[in-house]
Model the fold of this input.
Amino acid sequence: MNPKGKGAAAAEALAPRFKLDRTKVVPALVGRAEDFWIVSGLAGAFWEMAAMTNNGANYYGLGGAMGAACMMGLGLALTRPEKKILVVTGDGELLMSLGSLATIGTINPPNLSILCVDNGHYGETGYQRSHTSLGVDIEKFAQGAGIKMTCTVASEADIPNGARMLREGNATAFVLASVHPADGLKVKASLDGAACRLRFRDAMLAASKPQ
Done:
């Protein structure tokens, strides 16, 4: 469950930068979800992208797997260079696989964008505070890994730049959205990984056929 009452107040006191409403910020940053082929991490990112794509075939969510979203996105970006690939993940999922940023930074596929929705908590396992609420800055990890196009969205004024970066860059883009630790968009979605993989694969193959 989400932190409530004293827990929520403590979270805000310890991590005052986590203020934005993810139900507004994530849709504003992504825009038209159908313009991307999307891979998400688990927890909030999984449900948000299911809602924003209406469980579309252009979306593959890792609802029960942790730490793989960025590398799956990299694989798609390399094998389908003509497609715009978007990875949407959370701070907890990405903290488990920070080495993936180093690999991505050295390869630098121009069709790959990464949106990390950072709420400073492990939302999947009870909203324990994550490292980012204790001062860890994942955008700086991305910069150190060699990803040259990065930004942090910590206020509404930052949103237009973050949205442009996800869409218009000529190199891998990394956008960190700092949001309040509360639920994002939700919709009923399938957790059958095999069925979702086949649906995603079939849709991508169909979209790649000459018209």
Observations:
- The beta strands are 37-40, 59-61, 85-90, 112-118, 121-122, 128-129, 149-153, 173-178.
- The domain at 6-208 is CATH 3.40.50.970 (Rossmann fold).
- Residues 1-11 have pLDDT under 50 and may be disordered.
- The chain has one domain: 6-208.
